[in-house]
Amino acid sequence: MAEFTMELNDEQKEVRDWLHGFAADVIRPAAAEWDEREETPWPVIQEAAKVGIYSLDFYAQQYFDPTGLGIPMAMEELFWGDAGIALSIVGTGLAAVGVLANGTEEQVGTWIPQMYGDANDVKVAAFCSSEPDAGSDVASMRTRAVYDEAKDEWVLNGTKTWATNGGIANVHVVVAVVDPELGSKGHASFIVPPGTPGLAQGQKFKKHGIRASHTAEVILDNVRVPGSCLLGGKEKLDERLARARERAKQSGERVKNAAMATFEASRPAVGAMAVGTARAAYEVALDYAKTREQFGRPIIDNQGVAFQLADMRTSIDAARLLVWRASWMAVNGKPFTAAEGSMSKLFASETAKKVTAQAIQILGGNGYTREYPVERMHRDAAIYTIFEGTSEIQRLVIARTLAGVPIR
Ligand SMILES: Cc1cc2nc3c(=O)[nH]c(=O)nc-3n(C[C@H](O)[C@H](O)[C@H](O)COP(=O)(O)OP(=O)(O)OC[C@H]3O[C@@H](n4cnc5c(N)ncnc54)[C@H](O)[C@@H]3O)c2cc1C
């Protein structure tokens, strides 16, 4: 177990400064343009690939950092640059983690490189779980995967929605129902390889914020994938289903809401994204408050402004500490008995929404225009309380642990 410290080590500081440089020099200057265009910023992803930020190697290095701080630190810096562009850069990583966590070595080796492509021909990947009638209630998912034993193929049918990079991805990871009696215990994940017939992009959403990140429906119409595309393999799935059926028989009821604990370890990463956006808006507001003069003095000389900045900074630091704690717990295999992962995501995302609104207030009329970045940051921040589980779902999970109901 790594020794406890509140400081980043030298190697982490070096990586953080390198990422900060990329965020400041490449991401931030492009942010307003891609927000207006509402398109995937391919040239920026390509730049990230050239310097090694957009790659499995980089992501895996941060993911396996024994202190747990590699991923939150990277997320905070990239999202400090711009949330929409950063999500376009890290969205593939979120799909890749699904394969890393559940796939066999062969699946990792085959599919993850195809998710990223290479610096001359970058590709993206999508993780498709949400459906029109299955958002917070993951267990009500309807997309079906049926095994065709004669051909050793799985046949996928259904409609996914809100998929980041959905339809433009080279590789899609699709979660589908293999046994409807088992709720979310009856789900499995599949790779849909590039160019597979039957997979099509549906509606592309025009969004409030993170507009440089592509979000769309994914339609699956008799999509046939080889048996080898079931993540983890058939034997493991059959064992898992048998165990779940046995448990369901013993408790005499259909398994419900079982997926809620799955996200505890990944939620701090979203918290870190929120910290990045909040910090970015706070810095703009601080700088503005020191330079904008009214009544013959900088506006920061008014306690009403300075106290807001003090609260903003305090909340951001508190959010980061919650994120780091949960990330450290995840990497050290600590059980999330008080839903510490959800706590970090809840507090950081609510902080980002609040801090970016305060930043607009401190910039006055300028804050309300697209001439200054805090308007965009406030629109971007609204996503953090929605995706990877809404704030209400985080509270539900935390409350369950307080009430003594185990999170499964
Ligand atoms: C930009 C964007 C990108 C996304 N990217 C992805 C992606 O890549 N892959 C993917 O699979 N999904 C993705 N999502 C989906 C996201 O995870 C869902 O939107 C989210 O889980 C909420 O589901 P919902 O939108 O259906 O809202 P609903 O579940 O319908 O919730 C609506 C409201 O009801 C509240 N609510 C629901 N149940 C309860 C309850 N039990 N108690 C109290 N309140 C409750 C919610 O908190 C919310 O306020 C993305 C979404 C967006 C907007």
From TrEMBL:
Keyword Flavoprotein: yes
Gene Ontology molecular function: acyl-CoA dehydrogenase activity; flavin adenine dinucleotide binding
Cofactor(s) in the UniProt record: FAD
Location of the Acyl-CoA oxidase/dehydrogenase middle domain: 126-223
Acyl-CoA dehydrogenase/oxidase C-terminal domain mapped to chain residues: 258-402
Keyword Oxidoreductase: yes
Domain of life: Bacteria
Domain Acyl-CoA dehydrogenase/oxidase N-terminal: 9-115
Keyword terms of this UniProt record: FAD, Flavoprotein, Oxidoreductase
One Pfam entry name: Acyl-CoA_dh_M
Family according to the record: Belongs to the acyl-CoA dehydrogenase family.
PANTHER family associated with the record: ACYL-COA DEHYDROGENASE (PTHR43884), ISOVALERYL-COA DEHYDROGENASE, MITOCHONDRIAL-RELATED (PTHR43884:SF12)
Protein name in UniProt: Cyclohexanecarboxyl-CoA dehydrogenase
Species whose genome carries this gene: Streptomyces viridochromogenes (strain DSM 40736 / JCM 4977 / BCRC 1201 / Tue 494)
